[in-house]
Amino acid sequence: MKVTVFGIGYVGLVQAAVLAEVGHDVMCIDVDETKVENLKKGVIPIYEPGLTPLVMKNYEEGRLQFSTDAQAGVSHGVIQFIAVGTPPDEDGSADLKYVTAVARTIAQHMTAHKVVLDKSTVPVGTAEKVRDAMQAVLNERGVEYPFDVVSNPEFLKEGAAVADCMRPERIVIGTDNDEVVNILRELYEPFNRNHDRMILMDIRSAELTKYAANCMLATKISFMNEIANLAEQLGADIEKVRQGIGSDSRIGYHFIYPGCGYGGSCFPKDVQALIRTSEQIGYTPRLLQAVETVNNEQKKKLPTFVVRHFGEDLKGKTFAVWGLSFKPNTDDMREASSRVLLETLWSKGAKVQAFDPEAMDEAQRIYGHRDDLSLMGTKEAALHNADALIICTEWQNFRAPDFDLLKNTLKHPVIFDGRNLYDPERLNKRGFVYYAIGRGESI
Ligand code: NAD
C-alpha cells in the first residue's frame, strides 16, 4: 500500500521504516530540510537499536523515501499518518499546532479520498479538531473530497522502538467508519498474523487510551518512588520490598523500579496534558497531580544526596556522571533527570565530567556552550580527578564496573546511584560510601 508519514521523529521514522520493511511504499515528509537531506545520505537523526540498517536497506531498495515536498506526500498515499510532536504549551496542555498544520496541509493538496491516521499523542477531541481544520480548508478551496480521521495512538518504547513496531502488543484503532477498518486491516496485516492485535473502539476512547497507558506507567514509577522514600526513612530496603510485592501476580515485576524520576518526551508531558484536560472539564485529577509532584521531587533526590554528603557549596568539586539519556538504549535527553542533576550541581559551583554511551551529541547540543561540563570519551575517563561518581541512567555497561579502578581513581570513594545498580553491602565492604534510592541511610 502507498503510505505517507508526516513527521520523521522517533515515532514517524520507526513506523515508516517498519511499514517499508514489510513491503509498503512509504514516503516520509518533514519540514526539517537538514533532517531530510541527512536521511538521504544515510545519516539517521536518532539512536534506536536496529533502526539504521532498517532505514538504509528500505531506502536503498526504494520502499522508503524522504522529502520536504508536502504536496508530493499528500498525493502519494491514501493513508496519511500524522506523527509530529505535541509538546506541552505554556500551561502544560498538548500544543496541537503541528498536528493541525499537517491536517491543513493534507486538505490543501488532496484531490482524492484520504485516511488520516493520527499517531501523535493528542487530547480527547483532537480528531474532531483535525476534521474541522481539514473541512475548513476544503471549503476555502471550494472543493469536496471525502476523508476519514482515525485515532491510531503509538505505544512504542524508545530504546526498543523497532521491535515494538515489528511486533506490537496492540494496535488501537479509533474510528466511526467500518470501511476504514478494512483498509487498516490490510495495512497492519503483516503485523497481525500471530493473533489479532487490533483493538477497535470509538475515536475518543482511542485518544484517551494512550494517555491512560502513559499515566498508569508514570503512576507505577511515582508509587514506587514514594514507597522508596518511606523505606529510606524507615530503614527498609526498597529492593527487597520491590521483590516482595512483584511476586504477587496481580502486581508483577514489570515497571516497578524505584529511581531518580521518570523523564523522556512522553510521561512528563502526557501526565501534565491529562491533568490540564481534567481541569478543563472541571475535574480535579488528584492522583495524577500527585504522580507529577512525586516525580518532580524525585528528580531532586541525587542533588540532595550530594549536598548531604559534600555540603551546599560545591565550588571546587568535580563530579563524574554516568548516564545522561532519560533511559538506556536511547540518545533522548528530553526531561531527563540528569538535566536536573547537572543544572543543580552547576548552580552550586560544581563541575561535571559526563559520559553516556549514546547521548553525547545530544548533550553537546544542549550544554556544549558550558565550560563547567566536560564530555568524556569513556566511563573510566569521566572518573579522573572527580570527587565522586553519580549514576543517572541504568545502561547495561554500568552494571559491573571495575570497583578497584573506581576506588583508586575517584578522590573520594563515594557513589550516588539513582538507579540502584549495586549491592550496598558489597560496596560497603569495599570501602565505598554508597547512596542509593530507598535503601536506608548512606553506609
Ligand atoms: P519528534 O519531535 O521526535 O519528531 C517530530 C517530527 O515532526 C520532527 O522531525 C519535526 O520536524 C516534524 N514536523 C513538525 N511539524 C511538521 C509538519 N508540519 N510537517 C512535517 N513534519 C513536521 O517527536 P516524536 O518523539 O516522534 O513524537 C511524535 C508524537 O508521537 C508525539 O505526539 C508523541 O507524544 C508521540 N509518541 C512519542 C513516543 C516516543 O517514544 N517518542 C511514543 C509514542 C507516542
TrEMBL record:
<dbReference type="InterPro" id="IPR001732">
    <property type="entry name" value="UDP-Glc/GDP-Man_DH_N"/>
</dbReference>
<dbReference type="GO" id="GO:0000271">
    <property type="term" value="P:polysaccharide biosynthetic process"/>
</dbReference>
<dbReference type="InterPro" id="IPR036220">
    <property type="entry name" value="UDP-Glc/GDP-Man_DH_C_sf"/>
</dbReference>
<feature type="binding site">
    <location>
        <position position="334"/>
    </location>
    <ligand>
        <name>NAD(+)</name>
    </ligand>
</feature>
<feature type="binding site">
    <location>
        <position position="210"/>
    </location>
    <ligand>
        <name>substrate</name>
    </ligand>
</feature>
<dbReference type="InterPro" id="IPR014027">
    <property type="entry name" value="UDP-Glc/GDP-Man_DH_C"/>
</dbReference>
<dbReference type="InterPro" id="IPR028357">
    <property type="entry name" value="UDPglc_DH_bac"/>
</dbReference>
<dbReference type="GO" id="GO:0006065">
    <property type="term" value="P:UDP-glucuronate biosynthetic process"/>
</dbReference>
<comment type="similarity">
    <text>Belongs to the UDP-glucose/GDP-mannose dehydrogenase family.</text>
</comment>
<dbReference type="InterPro" id="IPR017476">
    <property type="entry name" value="UDP-Glc/GDP-Man"/>
</dbReference>
<feature type="active site" description="Nucleophile">
    <location>
        <position position="266"/>
    </location>
</feature>
<feature type="binding site">
    <location>
        <position position="327"/>
    </location>
    <ligand>
        <name>substrate</name>
    </ligand>
</feature>
<feature type="binding site">
    <location>
        <position position="35"/>
    </location>
    <ligand>
        <name>NAD(+)</name>
    </ligand>
</feature>
<feature type="binding site">
    <location>
        <begin position="255"/>
        <end position="259"/>
    </location>
    <ligand>
        <name>substrate</name>
    </ligand>
</feature>
<protein>
    <recommendedName>
        <fullName>UDP-glucose 6-dehydrogenase</fullName>
        <ecNumber>1.1.1.22</ecNumber>
    </recommendedName>
</protein>
<feature type="binding site">
    <location>
        <position position="30"/>
    </location>
    <ligand>
        <name>NAD(+)</name>
    </ligand>
</feature>
<dbReference type="InterPro" id="IPR036291">
    <property type="entry name" value="NAD(P)-bd_dom_sf"/>
</dbReference>
<keyword id="KW-0560">Oxidoreductase</keyword>
<dbReference type="InterPro" id="IPR014026">
    <property type="entry name" value="UDP-Glc/GDP-Man_DH_dimer"/>
</dbReference>
<comment type="pathway">
    <text>Nucleotide-sugar biosynthesis; UDP-alpha-D-glucuronate biosynthesis; UDP-alpha-D-glucuronate from UDP-alpha-D-glucose: step 1/1.</text>
</comment>
<dbReference type="Pfam" id="PF03720">
    <property type="entry name" value="UDPG_MGDP_dh_C"/>
</dbReference>
<keyword id="KW-0520">NAD</keyword>
<dbReference type="Pfam" id="PF03721">
    <property type="entry name" value="UDPG_MGDP_dh_N"/>
</dbReference>
<dbReference type="InterPro" id="IPR008927">
    <property type="entry name" value="6-PGluconate_DH-like_C_sf"/>
</dbReference>
<feature type="binding site">
    <location>
        <position position="263"/>
    </location>
    <ligand>
        <name>substrate</name>
    </ligand>
</feature>
<feature type="binding site">
    <location>
        <position position="158"/>
    </location>
    <ligand>
        <name>NAD(+)</name>
    </ligand>
</feature>
<dbReference type="GO" id="GO:0003979">
    <property type="term" value="F:UDP-glucose 6-dehydrogenase activity"/>
</dbReference>
<dbReference type="Pfam" id="PF00984">
    <property type="entry name" value="UDPG_MGDP_dh"/>
</dbReference>
<feature type="binding site">
    <location>
        <position position="269"/>
    </location>
    <ligand>
        <name>NAD(+)</name>
    </ligand>
</feature>
<feature type="binding site">
    <location>
        <position position="121"/>
    </location>
    <ligand>
        <name>NAD(+)</name>
    </ligand>
</feature>
<feature type="binding site">
    <location>
        <position position="86"/>
    </location>
    <ligand>
        <name>NAD(+)</name>
    </ligand>
</feature>
<dbReference type="GO" id="GO:0051287">
    <property type="term" value="F:NAD binding"/>
</dbReference>
<feature type="domain" description="UDP-glucose/GDP-mannose dehydrogenase C-terminal">
    <location>
        <begin position="320"/>
        <end position="424"/>
    </location>
</feature>
<feature type="binding site">
    <location>
        <begin position="155"/>
        <end position="158"/>
    </location>
    <ligand>
        <name>substrate</name>
    </ligand>
</feature>
